[in-house]
């Protein structure tokens, strides 16, 4: 996230549930994400952690680059069963 000096940075986080899936949106009003940079293949530790988490949750992630940066992560409720 990068914000110009004259712009007050704002970050919005929203988590919604729709049936058996969850939608996590993280959005800022910064300068946007560099168009030529593939956020799935980056040296950034933060983005590597996010991509790893999405993969572990068997989810999906998309990037919107309008008036800042928005990541939308969709994942499903995980079902666990314990046998004793």
Overview of the molecule:
The chain is of the alpha+beta class and about 80 residues long. The chain has one helix spanning about 45-55; strands spanning about 10-20, 20-30, 60-65, 70-75. The protein has one domain (about 10-75): 2-Layer Sandwich (Heat Shock Protein 90), CATH 3.30.565. The protein has a four-stranded antiparallel beta sheet with strand order 1-2-4-3, covered by helices on one side. Strand 3 and strand 4 form a beta hairpin. The radius of gyration is 15 Å and the shape is elongated.
User: What is the helical fraction, as a range of percent?
Assistant: 10-25%
Instruction: Tell me the count of domains.
Output: 1
Count the DSSP helices.
1
Q: Which topology does CATH recognise?
A: Heat Shock Protein 90
Structural class estimated from helices and strands: alpha+beta
Terminal CA distance: 47 Å
In CATH, the homologous superfamily goes by the name: Histidine kinase-like ATPase, C-terminal domain
Can you lay out the helices and strands and say which pair or pack?
Elements: E1 11-18, E2 21-28, H1 45-56, E3 60-64, E4 70-76
Antiparallel strand pairs: 1-2, 2-4, 3-4
Compact overview of the structure:
The chain has one helix spanning 45-56; strands spanning 11-18, 21-28, 60-64, 70-76.
Key attributes of the depicted protein:
84 residues, 33% strand, alpha+beta, elongated, Heat Shock Protein 90
